[in-house]
Amino acid sequence: MKKLNSNQSGIALMIVLWVLVLLMALATEFAFSMKMEVNTTRNYKEDTESYYLAKAGLNLALAELLKDASFHSIHDEYGWITGAGKSTKTPSADEEKAPKEGEGIFDIVNRTNIELGNGTITYTIKDENGKISINSTSKVILNKLLAYSGVKEKLDQDIISDSILDWIDSNKNHRINGAEDDYYRTQHPPYLAKNGKIETLSELLKVRGVTEEIFYGSQEEDGEYKGIAQFLTVYKFASINPNTTSVEVLNIIFSPEQAAEILKNRAEKGYHSNSLSTLFRVTSTGKVKGSKTEHTLETVLEKTGSGVSANMVTHYWNDNVLDL
């Protein structure tokens, strides 16, 4: 009997130990699950905070863009600048002696690490009017752009420019060096020419002659191709803004003498002419203090009207820009 009691005590001890192990495993799993839930909740909360901080940045940009302005320009030091709007009151004798509005007078705005609540806002304003509109440009401009980007052979330039124009126009007749359905049906897989306006620049990769290198540029820093995508926009506008145009586009659109004069004026006073833009790409990032969480929004806005009648039309909205 004593031996039997000893065996029963050993079995009971083993059962207790296994129960303790099981309870410890359950407790560890529960603690890990709770930690994951807390982290998920905190990340969601911080992402929501950063999202609304980013939206606040978009509203700050809207406040800038809706103001009346005498010009829009890109300054070497201050970035996007807006010329002081025209005043409606009659100037006094002292004010007559002051510099005229728009002549070297512009708003300087801080758009970096603006503190708001429990976080910061950083936003940028870029001008779509400073690019070449792919849906309304000419063959001459396209050939100049292609030549600058690295397409040296004249025939290759003509094939690409004619094919782009064929892709956009509404008819089925191809230009001398262009392409329509008969060409695209031979591709793998086959497809048809769009015969309509380009809605996203990546559509150009479907056009005859346009390779990824020509579109994006060579991967090597000193590669053969510079890439055409960075100089193009899908949006139409009345005229290009010389104040905001890159040096490359200036040399494509204007003569060397005109481009030199524009750059000289921009360097000396911050702008060349009283040119106003209508299409703007705004990118805004909200960050939560003490956290790595951030959220970036991007939108393309078109300004219509002026003064109290000014409105903003949204053409593009990206709710979550990924920085990959």
Please give a structural write-up.
This protein has eight helices and ten strands. About 6% of the residues have low confidence. The chain is α+β, with helices and mostly antiparallel strands.
Brief overview, please?
With 324 residues, this protein is of the alpha+beta class. The chain is built from eight helices and ten strands. It starts with a helix and ends in a 6-residue tail after the last strand.
Please describe the structure with a list of short key phrases separated by commas or semicolons:
10 strands, single chain, 324 residues, alpha+beta, 3-stranded antiparallel β-sheet
Break the fold down into its secondary structure elements and pairings.
Elements: H1 2-66, E1 69-75, E2 79-84, H2 93-97, E3 106-107, E4 114-116, E5 119-127, E6 132-133, H3 139-149, H4 154-168, H5 181-184, H6 212-216, E7 232-233, H7 247-253, H8 256-269, E8 279-288, E9 294-304, E10 311-318
Parallel strand pairs: 6-7
Antiparallel strand pairs: 1-2, 2-3, 4-5, 5-8, 8-9, 9-10
Helix pairs in contact: 3-4, 3-7
Mean pLDDT: 87
- Number of helices, where a helix is a run of at least 4 consecutive DSSP H or I residues: 8
In terms of DSSP E residues, the strand content is: 15-25%
* Terminus-to-terminus distance: 74 Å
Label the structural class. alpha+beta
Radius of gyration: 30 Å
| Uncertain stretches of 5 or more adjacent residues | 87-104
Number of strands: 10
